[in-house]
Specification:
Layout (H helix, E strand, L loop, with lengths): L4 E5 L4 E7 L5 E6 L13 H9 L8 H12 L6 E5 L4 E5 L5 H17 L4 H20 L2 H13 L13 H4 L4 H11 L5 E7 L2 H12 L6
Length: 218
């Protein structure tokens, strides 16, 4: 069994985890922020940021990004691994058949995280999508609802009691300025990590340098 190798890109503090595997082709970029980092009366902000950033980037228009992801990952939720939890947000995918497919998807995900494109029309559309997820999964899914209720019973003041999806009356108040402030605070290389299953450590190091060498820590 191969061990996981860990490296840090020293110029900006970005950490990367690598597991060499000749079969697996998995990649992803994580940010160490989740629903526990939602500001008071803005619960759902971390989840909304995830939705908004995965709409488009400077390199990929919204339609182009969607077509590429659907091509390699199938329908939404098939091989997608884009999600927000209590403590982190992840932009990645499950194992793909070919390495070149993984590298193409990684290119799209890296552009989302780095370019951080936020627009008013995207904000409007994606806040509606976040609200829809609240209804479909947070309310209609009994398993998810029970998990929320357990957290709210266990934690009275700790932000771990926050819903991951949103509080509907609060998510509607999130502004573009709220989104940009949240991104500026948490979407930093020294608060992020890259996961790569498949490439060698040296290959992974070159990928991190290629995509993130000019990402400035703050």
């Amino acid at each position: 069994m191969q061990l996981v190798s860990v490296g840090t890109f020293k110029p900006n503090g970005l950490r990367f985890y690598v597991h060499f595997d000749r079969i697996a082709n998995v990649s992803g970029i994580g940010i160490k922020c989740g629903s526990i980092h939602d500001p008071p009366v803005k619960r759902g902000l971390a989840h909304a940021v995830e939705h908004i950033l995965t709409r488009k980037s400077n390199k990929y228009a919204a339609k182009q990004a969607n077509l590429l992801l659907w091509k390699f990952l199938g329908r939404p939720d098939d091989l997608f691994n884009i999600h927000t939890n209590w403590t982190s947000t992840f932009y990645g995918h499950d194992s793909l058949l070919r390495k070149d497919h993984m590298l193409k998807v990684f290119d799209v995900m890296a552009s989302f995280v780095r370019d951080q494109v936020v627009e008013q029309k995207t904000r409007d559309a994606e806040l509606a999508a976040v609200h829809q997820e609240y209804l479909l999964r947070g309310v209609d899914s009994m398993e998810d609802l029970i998990e929320v209720l357990i957290h709210q019973e266990l934690y009275q003041k700790n932000p771990a009691r926050n819903r991951i999806d949103c509080e509907p009356e609060e998510v509607r108040t999130i502004t573009v300025q709220d989104i940009n402030t949240f991104i500026s605070k948490y979407y930093l290389p020294n608060n992020a990590f890259v996961v790569l299953l498949g490439p060698s450590f040296e290959e992974a190091k070159k990928l991190v340098r290629r995509y993130f060498s000019d990402w400035e820590p703050r």
